[in-house]
Amino acid sequence: MAKRKTGGLGRGIEALFEENNIEEPVQGETVQEIELTKIRPNPYQPRRTFDQSALKELADSIKETGVFQPVILRQPDESVERYELIAGERRFRASKLAKQETIPAIVRKMTNEQMMEIAVLENLQREDLTPLEEAQAYQTLMDKLSLTQAQVANRLGKSRPYIANYLRLLGLPDLIKDALNEGKISMGQARTILGLKDKTKLVALAKRAIENNLTVRQLEEIVVQMNGDAKKKAAKKSAKKPVYIREAESQLQSKFGTKVSVAPGRKNGVGKIEIPYTSNDDLTRILELLDISLD
To answer: Please, what's the b/e burial string for 260-272 (b: 16 or more CB within 10 A of its CB; e: otherwise)?
Structure first.
């Protein structure tokens, strides 16, 4: 079995796997051959894409020597011979690719919550994990288990700022997310770009970074300059607004975690409040703060 990724993510994840005996049989469990047609992937698995060339290599190996490490399954309804995959999706997919009929498995009793957490933890240990996939895994733990950033950090043996820095990536515009996933920009560059106060210029700055092959240091200097110009412009514009309007903007910005503009009504007496967002995820976050659901 391939060695798990643990160095970059801290001792916490490795300890959680050991505590839950994820890969080894526990008392009363046995390894049995289960038909592949009776198994469905983990519905909580956040991973959606798999390296096909790597799967082909694993499939070729399985054809020659079989599957040494059993997958972990659960049986939601004991009266029905159907199973859900808890851990070992690469082995499961490669076995299907190798046209195997069965796979060695351990059937374990597990709640939906436990199953979801294990799926996320297993995903975090991938060697090819992208920064955005790691960020989404942390967000999933927070959403599904009602955890705070501090609790996720403690659970995984990481610092809260480490978790927070990854979660910030989810607020990037989709174009920048794509560039990050494709390796066109690094996480350091993405984090620096996020420091730009005028969120409407994030994409333009990212394109500039890619086209000119800017380093993180160069980006930092550009962001400082752009933020300084934006601050002067905002201060000049804000000075024209009544004190109560500026105070309203300040309180709204604190609530929504983004720049909010309040324009007082003029002749017709109709004012407006503008709340910009940088991505679909960011819009969802703002809607949740307003207690609005699109479901």
So the answer is: bbbeeeeeeeeee
